[in-house]
Design brief:
Layout: H1 19-25, H2 27-30, H3 35-48, H4 52-80, H5 87-91, H6 94-99, H7 125-148, H8 153-178, E1 199-201, E2 226-228
Parallel strand pairs: 1-2
Helix pairs in contact: 1-4, 3-4, 3-7, 4-8, 7-8
């Protein structure tokens, strides 16, 4: 059950309206990394979540994002106000001024309508938490860029509040993922192919027009990974030996989402007994 309280989570005040900046702010209202997308993504993930503890997390943050949407909407409305009676301001964006009446609409900063395609919802808790961490990071950098393009003190302070909450949510989602108590790269129920999973393929070789060359770093020669050269470059290439998928071979968590199709044998449709979820040895 939702209940609206008329007081904003953060009180918004601005000194001088800036319609062009108000248009930029629409990115965080109806854009891909905006507050509505975040609110819908987390809330729908929460509705799907089978673990009551992390469902509570998702619904908490999803609901807070609706409060953030309200803050962004208040900021936009204040900055767009001149569009209602100033032709020069209205001409800056007729879609907002004429079609939207100089107010807030579900568009991004270039007039594209909001779409559910922005949402990343897989029904797998561990995967969705990773998507949420990335979503908060993207929103944080968008707020940082918006702060750089306004001189209005009240606007900057409101954006600073919103930007800070993105980091808070990143920390919460990261803690929720870590507390699932399984290896960081354990996804789903089928373990990756041994050997192949440790091979980093050097797919970009030679020297570029601006002096770019191959580099060695922890992303290709560390953390269990080793560099593999293409056959075209005289290397051995990736190990493409056939390896049959083994359902139930991946380390899972007691709070993982119920796998889809785990107990179905794809070859003949016979149902197999469900295997208990594996836990890390303490």
């Amino acid at each position: 059950m939702y209940h609206h309280v008329k007081k904003l989570m953060y009180t918004v005040n601005i000194d001088t309206p800036d319609p062009k900046f108000g248009n930029m702010l629409l990115e965080q209202f109806g854009g891909a990394n905006g507050e509505l997308a975040a609110a819908m993504q987390y809330s729908i993930q929460g509705l799907n979540c089978e673990d009551s503890a992390r469902k509570d997390l998702l619904m908490d943050i999803g609901t807070e994002e609706l409060s953030h949407l309200e803050i962004v909407g208040a900021l936009i409305r204040m900055h767009l106000k001149p569009m209602k009676n100033d032709r020069a301001a209205a001409e800056a964006d007729p879609l907002v001024a004429i079609a939207g009446g100089g107010g807030v609409s579900l568009y991004n900063s270039v007039g594209d309508a909001w779409t559910a395609d922005y949402l990343k919802i897989t029904g797998d808790l561990a995967v969705d938490l990773r998507s949420n961490i990335a979503a908060e990071a993207r929103a944080k950098i968008v707020y940082e860029r918006l702060i750089a393009f306004t001189d209005d003190r009240g606007t900057k302070e409101a954006l600073q509040f919103l930007m800070t909450r993105e980091i808070t949510h990143m920390r919460a989602f990261s803690a929720a993922l870590e507390s699932m108590d399984k290896p960081p790269f354990s996804i789903g129920t089928i373990a990756p192919t041994p050997g192949l999973v440790d091979q980093y393929f050097n797919g970009s070789t030679g020297e570029g027009d601006e002096g770019e060359t191959d580099h060695v770093g922890p992303w290709n020669s560390g953390h269990g990974l080793h560099l593999v050269q293409s056959e075209l470059a005289g290397g051995e290439g990736l190990d493409v030996s056939p390896y049959a998928p083994q359902p139930g071979s991946e380390v899972t968590s007691p709070v993982d989402s119920t796998p889809v199709g785990e107990d179905v044998e794809n070859t003949n449709g016979k149902r197999l007994p469900k295997k208990p979820k594996q836990k890390l040895a303490s």
